[in-house]
Specification:
The chain is globular, with a radius of gyration of 12 Å. It has 96 residues and is mainly alpha-helical. It is built from 4 helices and 2 strands. It has a single domain, classed as Winged helix-like DNA-binding domain superfamily/Winged helix DNA-binding domain (Arc Repressor Mutant, subunit A). Helix 2 crosses helix 3.
């Protein structure tokens, strides 16, 4: 079951254009919430890729987690998806 809060998060994230990113903090500010709560909602995203949670990164420009993981193959997959969309990434995994 998708909660009302999750729906709010997904509605904001759904609008992030291909090749662009938004921080967890920016999403949270749009719905008057916290970045951590946004991350928890995205971890449960049943609508990917229609709700492109891979386009949400940390406020400091680092990649952040993906599919509930903060390292490993899931985060590498997030990086690959962003690169495939034309997002420029620095060697350290930071978004330009």
């Amino acid at each position: 079951m998708v909660t009302e809060f999750q729906k709010k998060v997904y509605n904001v994230v759904r609008k992030i254009p291909r090749g662009k990113t938004m921080s967890y903090k920016e999403v949270a500010e749009k719905i008057n919430s916290s970045p951590r709560a946004v991350g928890q909602a995205l971890k449960k995203n049943p609508y990917a890729p229609k709700v492109p949670c891979h386009r949400v990164i940390k406020a400091d420009g680092t990649i952040g987690g993906f599919n509930g993981k903060v390292s490993g193959k899931e985060v590498k997959r997030k990086i690959r998806m962003l690169r495939d969309e034309g997002v420029k990434l620095k060697e350290a995994g930071l978004a330009d």
